[in-house]
């Protein structure tokens, strides 16, 4: 059986992201895209499945109906990126407790590349990222995200084991970025999430 090829628009609808997001991922080497003789972009079924698995989503693997409606989840989306798996488990446990009063969809990644994929897929209301991610320029990522109009609504919290007053990189990031020392007070995070929730409700 011949393997299915997706257009960027079809795969975008399957993953509930924009076609532009798929193109950006391709341009940055996050997904492999083939080109037809006519120069059109196509993504193999194998590559689409790999990406969907990384994002925790499932593909329908049937024909995509043009202009099909995509359900919108009204709850908060939060992405946390941290190399420390113990910290991620701690975050997951705490956010799970808050779900009784705060509608939260939590997405976690233990590296910058997967974190960027999650950000592109879910356009979160809050991003919490570890400054000390290994083999990844977090400052550049934070600056790029701050300039992205598609997630202008998003608040970014940068966390580090270092004293925030001693972090040389502080001067290189936008003033809107929140800087906190590890371990971050969960009470502080909850207040921030509640503020975001209140803003969304108007």
From TrEMBL:
Residues 77-197 form the Response regulatory domain. Transmembrane segments: none annotated. One of its GO terms (molecular function) is DNA binding. Gene3D superfamilies: 1.10.1660.10, 3.40.50.2300. InterPro entries: CheY-like_superfamily, DNA-bd_dom_put_sf, MerR-type_HTH_dom, Sig_transdc_resp-reg_receiver. It comes from the Bacteria. Keywords: Phosphoprotein. The keyword Lipid biosynthesis does not apply. One of its GO terms (biological process) is regulation of DNA-templated transcription. The modification 4-aspartylphosphate is found at residue 130. This is Response regulator. It comes from Methylophaga aminisulfidivorans.
């Amino acid at each position: 059986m011949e393997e299915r090829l997706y257009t960027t628009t079809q795969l975008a609808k399957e993953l509930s992201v924009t076609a532009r997001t798929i193109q950006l991922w391709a341009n940055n080497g996050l997904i492999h895209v083939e080109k037809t003789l006519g120069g059109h972009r196509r993504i193999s079924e194998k590559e689409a499945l790999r990406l969907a698995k990384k994002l925790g989503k499932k593909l329908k693997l049937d024909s995509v109906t043009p202009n099909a409606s995509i359900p919108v989840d009204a709850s908060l989306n939060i992405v946390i990126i941290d190399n420390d798996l113990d910290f991620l488990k701690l975050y997951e446990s705490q956010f799970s407790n808050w779900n009784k009063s705060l509608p939260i969809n939590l997405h976690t990644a233990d590296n910058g590349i997967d974190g960027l994929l999650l950000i592109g897929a879910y356009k979160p209301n809050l991003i919490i990222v570890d400054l000390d991610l290994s083999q990844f320029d977090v400052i550049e990522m934070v600056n790029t995200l701050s300039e992205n109009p598609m997630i202008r609504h998003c608040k970014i919290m940068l966390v580090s084991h270092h004293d925030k007053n001693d972090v040389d990189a502080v001067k290189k990031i936008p003033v809107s970025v929140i800087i906190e020392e590890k371990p971050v007070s969960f009470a502080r995070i909850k207040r921030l999430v509640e503020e975001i929730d209140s803003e969304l409700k108007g």
